[in-house]
Inverse folding.
C-alpha cells in the first residue's frame, strides 16, 4: 500500500502543565516521547509534503493587500511538481479552485488575532491570521489557463515560493443572502460611517 | 518564539528514480536522510497536529452520501481541544465555516481518481477524492450554535473521529454565473438525459 502520510503516534506523553503554551504541543511530542508519565494519551501527527510552489508577485508580507476593501486580483502561477502533473487532468474545466497552502514564514501562533481590518481582537479561527496552530492557508483563485504543470491563476494572496499542499475544484457557493460575516461585517459598517 | 510547526529539512536525499512512486516521497525523506547522494536537494515537510475532532453520524466511508445529487445536510459537532478554545472567540457571528481536516482512513493516494459521480477518471486535484498526495479534506459547514469548545454544525461529510486541522470563516462566495464546473457539470448533464 502506498503511504501518503507518516503518522507519528506518541504514547505516554507527560501531563501538560497549565503554563505550557499550546504552541509547544508539537515540540513536546517530538522531544518528550521518552519521558512519558501519562498512559493512554495518544497524539497523532500528520506530515505533509509540498505538491508545488506559488509563483507570486509578493516577496514579503507587507506586499500583500490587507484590511477592509483589500483587492485580491493579483495574477500568479501554481507550479506543480512534475511527479504530480497527472493529478491535474481535467482541471482546466473548472473556473475556480481552492488552494491549500502553508504559511511557511508566519513565525508562531496566537489564539487571539488582531486582523488588519479591525481594531479589536478575535479568535484566530474567526480570522484569516497566518499565526495559526497549524499554519495552513486557504485561497480561492480563478483559473485562467493551464500550461502543463503550471496553473495560471488570478487572486493570489500568497508570497513567492509558498508551498502548496493541495488543490481542489470549487464546486458551489453559499448564497450571499444566507451568509453572516460576524465581526467583519461590523467592522465594515463602522468603517463606512 | 513559539513553534507552531516542526519543519523537517532533509538535505542530501538520493536522486529519485523514475520507477519510485510519488506516494513514497514522504517515506523516502524519513528513511533515507542519512543515505544522501545528491547535494542541494531540500525537501521541506510540515507536521500538523489536530486542533480537535469531528463528532459525526458516519462511522465508515460507505455511510457518507456520495455521487450526483448527494445531500450533505448531516448534523455533527466540531469538538475543539480545550487548549484551543480561546481561538474560537467571536466565531459564532459567522453563519458558515471552512473546516480543514485529515482523511485519516483513506489508505493511499492515486493521481487519477474515479469519482462516484462519473464513470470516467479525472486528475485527483480536479476531484474531492480522499486518496490525495496530502490527505487533506475541506468542507463548508453551517454553524448552528456554539457551546464552549463545541461547534454544532450542519453539512458534515466527515467520519466520526476525523482530526480537524483548522477552521476559518467563510467570507464570500463566487457568483454562480461565474462558475464553471468542468467534468462534474458534464456528468450531471449526461445523468439528466
Amino acid at each position: 500500500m502506498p503511504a501518503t502520510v507518516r503518522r507519528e503516534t506518541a504514547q505516554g506523553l507527560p501531563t501538560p502543565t497549565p503554563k505550557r503554551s499550546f504552541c509547544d504541543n508539537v515540540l513536546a511530542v517530538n522531544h518528550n516521547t521518552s519521558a512519558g508519565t501519562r498512559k493512554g494519551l495518544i497524539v497523532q501527527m500528520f506530515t505533509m509534503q509540498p505538491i508545488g510552489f506559488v509563483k507570486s508577485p509578493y516577496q514579503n508580507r507587507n506586499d500583500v493587500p490587507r484590511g477592509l476593501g483589500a483587492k485580491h486580483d493579483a495574477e500568479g502561477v501554481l507550479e506543480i511538481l512534475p511527479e504530480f502533473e497527472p493529478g491535474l487532468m481535467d482541471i482546466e474545466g473548472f473556473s475556480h479552485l481552492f488552494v491549500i497552502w502553508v504559511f511557511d514564514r508566519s513565525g508562531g501562533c496566537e489564539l487571539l488575532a488582531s486582523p488588519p481590518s479591525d481594531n479589536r481582537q478575535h479568535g484566530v479561527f474567526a480570522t484569516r491570521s497566518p499565526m495559526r496552530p497549524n499554519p495552513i492557508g486557504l485561497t480561492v483563485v480563478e483559473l485562467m489557463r493551464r500550461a502543463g504543470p503550471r496553473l495560471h491563476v488570478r487572486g493570489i494572496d500568497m508570497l513567492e515560493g509558498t508551498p502548496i499542499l493541495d488543490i481542489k475544484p470549487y464546486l458551489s457557493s453559499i448564497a450571499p443572502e444566507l451568509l453572516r460575516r460576524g465581526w467583519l461585517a461590523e467592522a465594515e459598517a463602522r468603517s463606512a460611517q
Q: What stands out?
A: Chain B has two domains: 2-44, 52-172. Confidence is low (pLDDT under 50) at residues 1-40 of chain B.
